[in-house]
Structure formats: structure tokens, C-alpha cells
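hey so u asked for the seq, here:
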Amino acid sequence: MELEQLRSDMVAAMKARDKDRKDAVSSLVSAVKKAAIDEGCRENVPAELVDRVIIKELKTAKEQLDTCPDNREDLRAEYQKRYDVIAQYAPRMMSQEEVQEYIQGHFEELLATGNKGQVMKAVMGELKGKADGKVINETVARLCSQ
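ran it, C-alpha cells below
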């Protein structure tokens, strides 16, 4: 995802008077800008950074939704709308089967050692942002215990 695409979607949401969508996309744009400044790439923001920020914001929105009290339907609805909008921009993550195939294809020698720490270090370097960390951890643990 490119930062310019987020900006144009934010403008489109403003023109359509879609407040919920505008707020969610606006928060994504702000988070991307902040991350770009922190990493020193303010002028030329890479798509990888945008994707990483979107994933982080998606996790934050999911936590808000999960921790929302059941008796606060108004808040729950607001958090759900925000989560739904951010989820539309999130990059597709690899499934557990895809992660397993990738690990078995690229890290066969490391898997043979059975050292989960070494395997995780190597795999996370390559799959960070492409697959969920929990899925990677579970898959590596299962493959190392075989």
C-alpha cells in the first residue's frame, strides 16, 4: 500500500461525508507519517513501512474491540467500524499452510537441528510483515518437535 493511496482515499471519504471511514484512514495516514519521521524517510515513504504500520494499527484496533466492555454497544460499534476500515487496507497475510511450506522449503537444514530459537530468528527475518508472528511461532514449534 502506498501513502498516496491512503491520502486519496481519505479525501474521497471526506467528499462522501463518510466520517467513520475518514477518521480511520486519517489515523492511518498520521501513524504512517509518524513512523516515517521516526525512521528518517519522511520524503520517500516505502510501501513496506506503510504495510507495517497498517498491520500494527489493525492489531491495536483488534485489541480495542476485544477489551471493550459488553455493555458499551456504542463503543463496540465504533471500534468495529474502525477495525473493518483498517482491515480493508491490511496486506494479505500468509496462512499457516503457506508458512509451513515456506519454512520447510527454505529452512530444511535449520529444522533438522531442532533448535527453535535459531529457526525463529531466521524465519522472522524473512517473513516479518508477511505472516502473523503467532502463526510463525506455532508452526516452527510444531516442526521442531517432530
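The chain has eight helices and no strands. Residues 19-39 form the longest helix (21 residues).
lmk if thats what u needed
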